[in-house]
């Protein structure tokens, strides 16, 4: 090692030893005095011991960046001392000095993970290099411990924040549930009363103008009833409270059930055609009630937005692991500016060309499909009109 490298090593060693403590164990007084003198030029704190027993007591009371120990000592050998200290500090940096290099000493040291060994009388340059190596390892270990502690503190802080957030979410969910109960009771109950009285009044009204007024009241009440039901269904599904009941159902039967449930609304658009381009026995293994709700919403939207004389065509495609149900209408299609927000709840604006906007219909379709493990997509069909694709995961009956 040339003089320049020696100077760099010594300067680096002094930086590493700054503020550090070393425990030096040697039973020969003259050797202990000589090496201690050198160590004191490097370390601010040098603690010495005459044997392993004394060294172990000192080690347990202090925090040492480096332990330097002889092997052959009375009362407790260096190897016994190393075994004992590693029980409490397995990562302790250790440098071994010995007058013997036989395998009886080296093999136990290797098994203990000691990687720095120097023969006596010591080569001072090698001795300083080994001290530098062990201090570098010790510094890395200390930095790793500090980093680990910082991570633990960060995890603790984030865990506490998460706990507080979860508590906040629970409180919000409780408030939401209470609001849903209020909506269900305070809106649906009076609505049922209004619709019931309308039916009672209708036979006694002979005046056409009054009957038309009553029809308007009924339409408004039923629209509010549908919106309330959709809001309740949306909230129930979005909180994951709905249990899925899957069975095999013919798609044509699901479509017919949806048509039957919206028949009254479709009567107001008598020229609307609903077509199924598929075999009558084609089946989906799914939750019928949820799928019918999807189809109802799509038919209602088509009746409302697809213009006069609309045609709604349903077809089936197999796409890998998906059963895809494609719904196309003959209307003006979606507004390009709002396709990205089409499935967001309570979206408003020019959703369809020349339309008044919409509320929860397609948002409910989206959350139902997610509940079923599927996906929904929307686009303007190249042939014209709006196109909705419902991708159902292929699930086998158990």
Average pLDDT = 82
Strand fraction equals: 15-25%
Distance between the termini: 76 Å
Number of strands: 12
Please provide the ordered H/E string of secondary-structure elements: HEHEHEHEHEHHEHHEEHEEHEE
Could you please say which CATH topology of the largest domain applies here?
Answer: Heat Shock Protein 90
The secondary-structure class comes to alpha/beta
Helix count equals 11
Rg, alpha carbons: 41 Å
User: How many structurally independent domains?
Assistant: 3
Strand order of the largest sheet: 2-1-3-4-5
- CATH homologous superfamily heading of the largest domain: Histidine kinase-like ATPase, C-terminal domain
Biggest sheet overview = 5 strands, parallel
Question: Which regions contain 5 or more consecutive residues with pLDDT less than 50?
Answer: 348-359
Write down the overall geometry: rod-shaped
The CATH class of the largest domain is Alpha Beta
- The quaternary organization reads as single chain
Q: CATH architecture of the largest domain, please?
A: 2-Layer Sandwich
Tag the structure with descriptive keywords:
single chain, 398 residues, alpha/beta, Rossmann fold, 3 domains, 53% helix, rod-shaped
